[in-house]
Amino acid sequence: MAVSIRLRREGAKNRPYYKVVVADRRSPRDGKFIETVGTYDPKKPGHNSTLNIDRVEHWISKGAQPSDTVRSLIKKNKKATATAEPSSGAQRESSQSTQEEPSPPPPPSEPLS
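^ thats the sequence. predicted structure below, dont judge the formating
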């Protein structure tokens, strides 16, 4: 069975919304599929897709072929997660360092007369 990772159209007329699915190559575009691995909203500006990269990698290792659009979405999502990981790691280190060092007590407030 030839398996592909492709887009399945959802949404209303003139308002497309896609789910990234793993499906048999012979099934129709909006027909039967094996698994949903993400979403894609082309009308949304900026980062407009979500993918479960682990499941995509799993299916590709099993021989699934991504469509051209899905291949570009995978590339963008891998790039986004790669840039997000170092910054989150830096935030964790800084939050750990602030937790280790106690903050100095606030200066005593003077009573109002």
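The CA atoms of residues 37 and 76 lie 15 Å apart.
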